């Protein structure tokens, strides 16, 4: 019943639209005579007899043209002729504008045609705004998205320009290419997930177009302008920083030239080789607080040293007070000794014996000046503990037995914090790093001499831990360092050995010479990615055979940087920062346990952090996270991009998520045979409504590579967008940016010929074998060259029959030879298998 009411409302709306269009056309037709008079003048002899109102307006000296006289005559036409003499002007106007032009030109006067066309446009415009649908919905309301749906996808956006454009936004993550040829882009800083099997064109179809697309940049002048204020400047918002997981190195090699030309600072973090930039997970440029922490600590110790006899001990006690008490400032003001735990210097007591009770004394003023620094130092130390905890989670696999996993991670946290604060206390040691941590452990245990009188728990590790605890207490390292070292020291020797084995297994990769070299220092800081004046494109390149082992370090970078970016102040980001886009290709190479990284879809919108997660199937993603987390991830992302599928489970899940549409089925029956009751020409037709899947699983499993894809956008999951792949080699601008040459007519002809060739023209791959991108390129280039050579040979044979030399050919004595064009002239890059 509700469905039928909505259909009736939709029909009524369309009828109303037609009537409004007719009224608009009639209103515009009243302008036909003034326009006719403007361009053609008026025949006085025909108008004076039957059309006195308009004939009275005739001036024998008037010539067609726009003038004040024409404006006056037009006003008189509306005031006198149109309203007072409707029976006199209707028939002559019909003859003047319709009948006579039909006899001469075969069509009415152009002013009539314009009026009717304008009325039709008005009717269509009103019909387009119909809030009701004719579609039957009794068994499902799924349907494919229309252009109107695409434009209204960002109906809740704050920026009016973005709200009006929808998925036709000038910036944002590239999702696909609409049937009208325009790119579909994420209008807001939301995340997306791309699901496609190997060889389906993920790199060429989605990832590279995001790197090669236009990212207009706009910096507000007054602070509150929107894109609508900057239309003439071709600007929108700050260019984003890209962080790309690129195990093969193909994305870096192909996008490098364009990114540099577009003004990007390109960073290559190659963990398996000696080239590229370096990143130290424990380096000062990566740690919260950075190099400001030791300077702040020194400033606090200098101030405390002017009041207390032991400033290191005083700072240690004050940090505990900050941790355990909310009224520590009031307690310190009431009693600067905190119950006798802090010893004030004798000379301070002698000079200020009568002034210590108030904050007006110089000593108390000194303490008051460093209260803010103490709070900042405490905050940085807490953030460092969380940062190191994330690194330990990435280093030690989630699949290890929980007891040894948790103990190993706790030990690694304690050792890492000890390394950080030891290097801060002694600058001659250089930057802290996992390689330096391994050195500290080696140096502390290699010369160990066991004590015959000691118990069985006295070993090299126990001796090292005792020495490190003593050093931490003497130098005033944070309490967390002493806590973790003391906990491990109390563990029985056999269990401690297993814990250390688990810990060392997590950082074994840092013993490799190339990895240690690439992680011994940092050539950039995490804040540089966000607040740099130039946009940054960072590629993490790892050899594919070592992708899982080196994926720990990639996971450390992704997890630590994501935690930093989603926790930054939103005001600072939107006034000085840049959006961050993670392109997580080959997600299977990353480690488990990346909690902050996987929170980007849920928390990154306000902090301008986006994630494009690329997986082969939802089942593969579930191997890195659990199935429940996959469901949460799908509900948090703004869009799901679906290419050709191989996994039936994923196809079924997508089909079920989209839902059914209501289809009308007809059952036809006829009685056969002979007899009195048989009527040969009588048919019985019964119609019924049923629900059918809009996107059957078989449809998703048989999509054409790099030609078809679907986009499921938030708020319109039951209206999937049927679009084509935005592959870079199908876009002349992107092709020019990647290859350096705009494809000309010959290249387009080559692609056309290659596409027309039968698929058996190129060698078929072996059963069970997957053809690589390079094989596709070579096959396509060979097919195109063969087609061009055959065409040239055909022309040469025809010329030979006619006794003519080919145009532009060299004389036979010069031995001219046809050189087929190289594949690069036609095929620009990877995943162009369809050209073969």
Net shape: elongated
Q: Any idea of the CATH class of the largest domain?
A: Alpha Beta
How many DSSP H or I helices? 35
Q: What is the CATH third-level topology name of the largest domain? A: Rossmann fold
What's the CATH superfamily of the largest domain, by name? Answer: P-loop containing nucleotide triphosphate hydrolases
Question: How helical, in percent, are the residues?
Answer: 40-55%
Could you tell me the number of beta strands? 13
Mean pLDDT: 78
Biggest sheet character: 9 strands, mixed
**Fraction of residues in β-strands:** 5-15%
Secondary-structure-based class equals alpha/beta
The CATH architecture term of the largest domain is 3-Layer(aba) Sandwich
Which strand order spans the largest sheet, edge to edge or round the barrel? 5-6-4-7-8-3-9-12-13
Which residues form runs of ≥5 with pLDDT under 50? Answer: 43-53, 220-225, 227-235, 751-777, 804-836
Distance between the termini: 54 Å
Cα radius of gyration in angstroms: 38 Å
Count up the domains.
5
Structural notes for this entry:
With 836 residues, this protein is an alpha/beta fold. The chain folds into 5 domains: 2-128, no CATH class; 189-282 and 533-653, Rossmann fold, CATH 3.40.50.300; 292-376, no CATH class; 396-518, no CATH class; 743-835, no CATH class. It is 50% helix and 9% strand. The chain contains 35 helices and 13 strands. The strands form 3 sheets. A 9-stranded mixed β-sheet has the order 5-6-4-7-8-3-9-12-13, sandwiched between helices. Strands 1-2 form a two-stranded antiparallel sheet. Strand 1 and strand 2 form a beta hairpin. Helix 12 (292-305) packs across helix 13 (311-324) and helix 20 packs antiparallel against helix 21. The longest helix has 30 residues, at 773-802. The protein is elongated, with a radius of gyration of 38 Å. This is Type IV secretory system conjugative DNA transfer family protein. It holds the Pfam family T4SS-DNA_transf. It is found in: Cell membrane.
